[in-house]
Amino acid sequence: MEHASAVATLDTRGTVTAWSEGARRLTGHAAEEAVGRDARELLAGDVPPEGLSGLSATVLLRHRDGSTVPAHVRALPLLGPAGTPQGWALTAGPPEPPTPPLTGETFQQASLSMSVHDVEQRYLQVNDMARRMLGLPPENLIGRRLSDVMEEIDANGTDFERHLRRVTETGRAARYETFTPASSRLGEHAWTIEMWPVRDASDEVAAVAVAGFESTLQHRARQRLALLNEAAAGIGTTLDVTRTAEELVGFLVPRFADFASVDLLDWVLGTEEPLTAVTGGVALRRVAHDSATEGVPRPSVHLGAADVYPPYSAPARALALGQVVLSGPGDPDFDRWMRVRNEQAPHNRSYRERVRSALAVPLKARGTTLGVAVAVRVAPREPYADDDLVLAEELASRAAVCVDNARRFARERATALVLQHSLLPRGLPGPAAVEVAHRYLPSASAAGIGGDWFDVIPLSGSRVALVVGDVVGHGIPSTATMGRLCTAVRTLADVDLPPDELLTHLDDLVTHLVAGDTGNEVAELGATCLYAVYDPVSRRLTAAAAGHPAPAVVLPDGTTRLLAMTAGPPLGVGGLPFEATETELPEGSVVALYTDGLVEDRDRDVDHATEELCRALTASAASLDALCDTVLKAVLPEEPSDDVALLLARTRALGADQIRTWDIPQDPAHVADVRRSVNERLAAWGLEETAFVLELVVSELVTNAIRYGEPPIQLRLIRDGALICEVSDGSSTSPHLRRAHAYDEGGRGLLLVAQLTERWGSRQTTTGKTIWAELSLPAD
């Protein structure tokens, strides 16, 4: 011990048992004077209580000359063989610099909310910040639980006590975040709570210390970011203006506002462009609104109704300025607006008196103002701050772009629909060969209107052409291409080409369109088409397809089948042949032609949908129109993803008494006999009124066939919706009209036929040609 600066030992009674030279130099007492004395006799004052408990203290020692010596003394226990204290070793050194006793003040004055709780969750101590936060004096807190001092304990308080119990039971620190709503006693705040156990000398948890860090600003920033992220995916899910406005309101209420509304300018809901800028008072139409409390407030403006906002109102100011307008009680314009609103809708006066703040945000996209969104906060929520204005602008900007996209889509859809309806047949002819019914359903998907079309084209000889087609793509370009193809089919049908030859010419046309198209209008090509011709005389259906689904046929006995045919390549491929399929149909058969939108969808199996189509076609229906509706209801999903065209045709047959055929020798002398036979047939049909005109037509056509044609020559009369005269011969040379000069002996025959009949023409056959002419039947 003599090597230490100042060392002494004591027994358990406090008697000095050893004394070092350093101790002599420090106190002036020699070892023989100190050993055996009570250590308290060497002190000039009592040891502080905290020093006894902590075994370390700065004390005053009594010097041998009567003066006092300050020294910092530390005590270490001396343990015996059994591990029990046998005495103490003391060391003394220069006193440590004095430290102010600010531990309590540090706790009390901390900027954090701090408290200490016993193992029963009762308050032991709170600092000033915690007391101010709770709004209670310390005497109302000490010894009581949080649930005792807050009469309306909410979920946050329950969560607080649950974490206290967990720290007490586990002895492990805890950290969690909590948020108190504006309706709570603490107000609208976010907190990060730290809890840790306080242990006693036996290492048992004797208390739990709590520190609360207010993180309201960070919480609100995270909320705004989360709201923006959700809005990016949740606003504009459809190309519908009203639905987009409803989605914006859904994001604002209740997280950002207690009440929100979206009002749009009238032209936004139509297909027109704005004519003038928004100035002064403005008329807006309400498309969406919602409130955090159901039924409060009652709508002052009902959905779909228009309202005029005065120039000083927040919505009108926002539209005029093109920026967010923040207003609230105390703002003269706002107070004036509320007074007018109270007069117009007094039932919401109490709600308006609770308004803390209101935001009016213009909906602007691509430099165009579309409308305004209004967000309102009422007590007890905090008014809007600057950061809220930025968030509102971001949400409104996102919604405005989506509204503008929906508006543009609606305008293009309306344009394409008008164009398509103008190109599709409005009133299909009612040829005697078939009874027809049809349906066209434009797609409501974001892809837009497609290029589906159908047509029924009367042909010569009472025949009829049935057509369906589909152009790849959507929108106006697809519709325009559909118009080209539809017109081309009618033109080629007028030439009376067989189905396979017609598709070959149509394929060439599409190929030329693609090759010469610089606008990429049909670049994806291309198109599919089914062209079928039904002849009521032979009851035969001849069809050819270019990449199109085969038609379904329902026989009179209820048997349903798909017409066995080769689909052929889509139009625009070029260089590949098309094959025609011919089948005989009993009278009363139903032929169903359709586009792929009826049976194809990304979520449906084509074969299964086709089976459903065949079953639906056999359903009992009062008419073909009713059968169309039955088929669509049975086969289509609720929201088809593609356009659908459906054309149903019920076949008819001409009886033998409606047709008369004569074989004519190639001798002009037989023309008179032919005229006589025709008159007899007309008399049998009761059509004597048409005898004179038909006699002239027959004479001219038969004479031309004898003079310029080749055998065999045949005359056929058909009584159907019109009186049809057909003269066939073995020559493939087609006749044509020409202008006859004054002294020409011929050249006026076909001109006479054209003048006397409703229409006339010629068609090529496998054995030559047929020249035909149609006359109207008498009215009765």
Protein architecture, described:
With 780 residues, the chain is of the alpha+beta class. It is 32% helix and 28% strand. It is built from 20 helices and 31 strands. The strands form 6 sheets. The chain has a 6-stranded antiparallel β-sheet with strand order 13-12-11-16-15-14. Strands 2-1-5-4-3 form a 5-stranded antiparallel β-sheet. β28 and β29 (723-729) form a beta hairpin. The protein is elongated and about 175 Å long. It starts with 6 loop residues before the first strand and ends in a 5-residue tail after the last strand. The model is unreliable at 518-523 and 740-746 (pLDDT under 50).
Per DSSP, the total helix count is: 20
Structural class: alpha+beta
Strand content: 25-35%
Assign a percent range to the helix content. 25-40%
* Number of E-state strands: 31
Low-confidence stretches: 518-523, 740-746
Give the C-alpha Rg. 50 Å
User: Average pLDDT value?
Assistant: 84
Distance between the termini: 146 Å
Largest sheet: 6 strands, antiparallel
Q: Name the overall outline.
A: elongated
- Could you give the order of strands across the largest sheet? 13-12-11-16-15-14
Which features does this protein show?
single chain, 780 residues, alpha+beta
In short:
By secondary structure, this protein is α+β, with helices and mostly antiparallel strands. Helix 13 (386-423) packs parallel to helix 14.
Question: What secondary-structure arrangement, pairings included, does this model have?
Answer:
Blueprint: E1 7-11, E2 16-19, H1 21-27, H2 31-34, H3 49-54, E3 56-62, E4 68-79, E5 85-93, H4 103-108, E6 113-117, E7 123-126, H5 128-134, H6 146-149, H7 155-170, E8 174-180, E9 189-199, E10 205-214, H8 216-234, H9 241-252, E11 259-264, E12 282-291, E13 306-309, H10 314-321, E14 325-327, H11 332-344, H12 349-352, E15 355-365, E16 368-378, H13 386-423, E17 434-441, E18 450-458, E19 464-474, H14 476-494, H15 499-516, E20 527-535, E21 540-546, E22 552-554, E23 560-562, E24 580-584, E25 590-594, H16 606-617, H17 624-635, E26 644-651, E27 659-664, H18 671-685, H19 691-708, E28 713-719, E29 723-729, H20 749-756, E30 759-764, E31 769-775
Antiparallel strand pairs: 1-2, 1-5, 3-4, 4-5, 6-7, 6-10, 8-9, 9-10, 11-12, 11-16, 12-13, 14-15, 15-16, 17-26, 18-19, 19-20, 20-21, 21-24, 22-23, 22-25, 25-26, 27-28, 28-29, 29-31, 30-31
Helix pairs in contact: 8-13, 9-13, 13-14, 14-15, 16-17, 18-19, 19-20
